[in-house]
Amino acid sequence: MSLPTRMTALVLREAGFSPVTAAITRELSDIERHLELAEIPLPKLKPGQVLVRVKYASVNPSDTSFVQGLYGQARVKGVPPGFEGMGTVVAGEGLIARAIMGRRVAFAVPPGGSGAWAEYAVTDARAAIPLMKGVRDEDGAALIVNPLTAAAMVADVPPRGAFIATAAASQLGKLMAALAKESNRKMIGIVRRDAPIAPLQALGARVVLNETDPGFEAALAETIDQLRPKVLLDAVAGAVAGRIHAAMGHGARWVVYGRLALDPPQILAPEQLIFAQKRIEGFWLAGWFQKSSLPRMLMTIRAVQQRFARGTWRTDIGVKIPLRAALAELPAALTRPDAKTLISME
Amino acid sequence: MTIPATMQALVQLHDGYSAERQDQRLSDLSPFVRLQEVAVPEAGPGQALIKISRAAANPSDIAFIKGAYGQARVAGVAAGFEGVGEVVAGDTPLLGKRVSFFGTGTGTWAEYALTDIQTLIPLRDDVADRDAAGLIVNPLTAMAMFDVVRASGSESFIATAAGSQLGKFLIQLGAEHDIPCIAAVRRADQAEALKAQGAGAALVIGDAAFPAEAKRVLEAMKPRIMLDAVGGPASATLFFAMPRKARWVVYGRLESTPPALTEIGQFIFLQKQIEGFWLTSWMREEAPERVGAVIAEVQARFADGRWRTDVSAEIPLSRTMEEMPAAYSQPDSKILIAPGG
């Protein structure tokens, strides 16, 4: 098959990092300062890499932070961003590349690689994951970052230990509930409505509490007393998370991985940092990538794929935005809180 | 030497912890301790009785009597963590010797105190009582936390409440090791004084220019560690202006307003984190040889004059109830209590 020499892509207009005090927006409101649409040469492959003709690319919080220069990885001017997507393998050399040539794959872009917000992207051949029959293209585009985040965070909880997860009704929360049960860890899910309680328990959460219940604080205290969770996996970073951390026991770690709330949390009991050895930190997927083994990641992704193939899981897609309309339409699409945004190259 | 049957002591009025959240400020001692005639404690196996010549009053003592420290109060027992004095009873070769010590049995705000023999630190003759009374809490905390700075590989660090005795020790350590301390203080005159003592830069919290100046200094000096005695909103402002992988190490709570975490993305994307430091945990977890070496180093620093305790007030035990709150509320106070006075 013959490839074009040039492609359309969203490319970075800036290099390196922004000052840490620069304002970061979830909805990428200053998009034209950071990105432009350009015609650029097809990316060059290094040994072990394959070229993917992208169909859908994910837009994750890690992408919007990276584009704004506030992710722990330097930007390269003129190169497309986009850490994750799905498409068809169209070029590459070596055994693995030949085995997956022409296949539909999910892929993650290695650090410094040419990203997924483009008609073509580069990935390591070993990190291109052939999609099973029955996995929708839309699910394939979001197969890696969220599921691996869930797996990595659950793995960070001591075996047989307990953890608390906020926004537990989210896609990631459901993933964690199932992974917790399989790995013999106890998940305490925090939700805002009663409807997701039974489904989450069916997936594997040990306890699910509705934070809007009048008896929430008492039920939380009792659950903490019983299960002694040491980790709070927090997608919300709001006032409730601060209260949960203060109610947890000695050595409790508050691991923030998302920000859904608009009201900033407070450190209610700074003395607990001192005397109870509590900590507050963030979850950093790229760091986990660096220290985790590839077979372990592939196994995790395989388990996730099976769930999508069987229809147990489904990615809730909010909007598909054509690549050429992304500069105009992305900021508005990203204001929708719970649904996933994809960039479409079709 | 004859040991009397009773002694004067500032005894705690409460058991356990405070139900309400407390800070380390002090306007009145009477809700927490009372001057009282009590029995002189007797040394049991493994214990020593010390006749106290000077006791220290640190922010951690205040947090303790208010029920906001990581150790439960015991009503009827003297308060006060550290002091200097002479060993007058106990099965130890240090009998009759001058020691610094941590009052593990009964507190140091008294004429006599009981402690475990292994916590006794025999003193060099050339270390003055003024320095020996506060040999443990501030100097050891400074040395141990500076270990954290050095281990991090950071090229500079921030210290809040840097005009305190502990802050001054940190500034000197930074200057000696070429890891400059960025001193965060509340008054402009402190800033100048601390720069003269070796601080690499000083930031005046509360200045109109503070946020902009903090941003400029932190971008230039790139501190990855903040040693924070305050635990308040200004500490959060500094933290969120620090570079990637910054660590906010809280070791005190001089302010009661809880800090808000306004830039949550920084935890995730800039790998920042918040943790605490407690000398008690450090002593429990650090290798005993390292603890011993740090104690020897602290004494050497006082003996040869590299370090010096600037005492702001020495209060007789009998006048402590009346005089301590005002003396403690002075900026950068360093108070000693003298039982004999």
Any descriptors?
heterodimer, A: 346 residues, alpha/beta, seven-stranded mixed sheet, 15 strands, 32% helix, globular, B: 341 residues, six-stranded parallel sheet, 11 helices
SSE map:
The complex is a heterodimer of chains A (346) and B (341).
Chain A: E1 6-12, H1 31-34, E2 35-41, E3 49-59, H2 61-67, E4 84-92, H3 95-100, E5 104-108, E6 120-124, E7 128-130, H4 137-140, H5 145-155, E8 162-165, H6 171-182, E9 186-191, H7 197-203, E10 207-210, H8 216-227, E11 231-234, H9 239-247, E12 253-256, H10 270-275, E13 279-282, H11 285-291, H12 294-310, E14 317-322, H13 326-333, E15 340-344
Parallel strand pairs in A: 8-9, 8-11, 9-10, 11-12, 12-13, 14-15
Antiparallel strand pairs in A: 1-2, 3-4, 3-6, 3-15, 4-5, 5-7
Helix pairs in contact in A: 5-6
Chain B: E1 6-12, E2 33-39, E3 47-57, H1 59-65, E4 82-90, E5 98-102, E6 112-116, E7 121-122, H2 129-132, H3 137-152, E8 157-160, H4 165-177, E9 181-185, H5 188-196, E10 201-204, H6 210-221, E11 225-228, H7 233-241, E12 247-250, H8 265-269, E13 273-276, H9 279-285, H10 288-303, E14 313-316, H11 320-329, E15 335-338
Parallel strand pairs in B: 8-9, 8-11, 9-10, 11-12, 12-13, 14-15
Antiparallel strand pairs in B: 1-2, 3-4, 3-6, 3-15, 4-5, 5-7
Helix pairs in contact in B: 3-4
